[in-house]
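Input sequence (169 aa), recorded before submission:
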Amino acid sequence: MVKTLIDKRQIEYWDELGMEIENTIKQHDPATAYAIIRRLRGRRQNVENMPIHNKNGILLVNSKARLESWKEFYSELLNVNSIIVPILLDQIKPTSLSTMERRRQDKEPTLDVMQQALKQMKNRKAPCKDDTTVELLKAGGMPVIRWLHDILSIFGRMNKWWRTGVRQF
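Predicted structure, token format:
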């Protein structure tokens, strides 16, 4: 009895997969069809191409439909209506730094501090927008640290000018 039920379910499963592959090909999405076939071969699963169910329970195999479903899911999750009471916002007082803390934060970093900070940065992390990696900065040695120090010093002075409105030479 159990064996016949298992055999019947296996046949249904393969028929469902066959229909899935046919539908993706009919929708002119061969990449998804090949992804399903590769998944059936038994190698590691590629989660990016796996079909998902939307909130109505419909199986989405098309990549555009999956992306739209994820967009809808996160939009509903993150864009929650909230009630903001203006009176409460007015009661929030902005914090201010003490003059001693302000001086400490405004002080230009020394070359030693910059060298120590660069040493503490982790290697093999994603590069910046300009493709600069930590390894590149570390390989530059002291000349790069001096260059970074000069740039940060200029920005520190500019920040002070913007805050006070007085340019100091």
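Checked by second reader. The mean pLDDT is 84.
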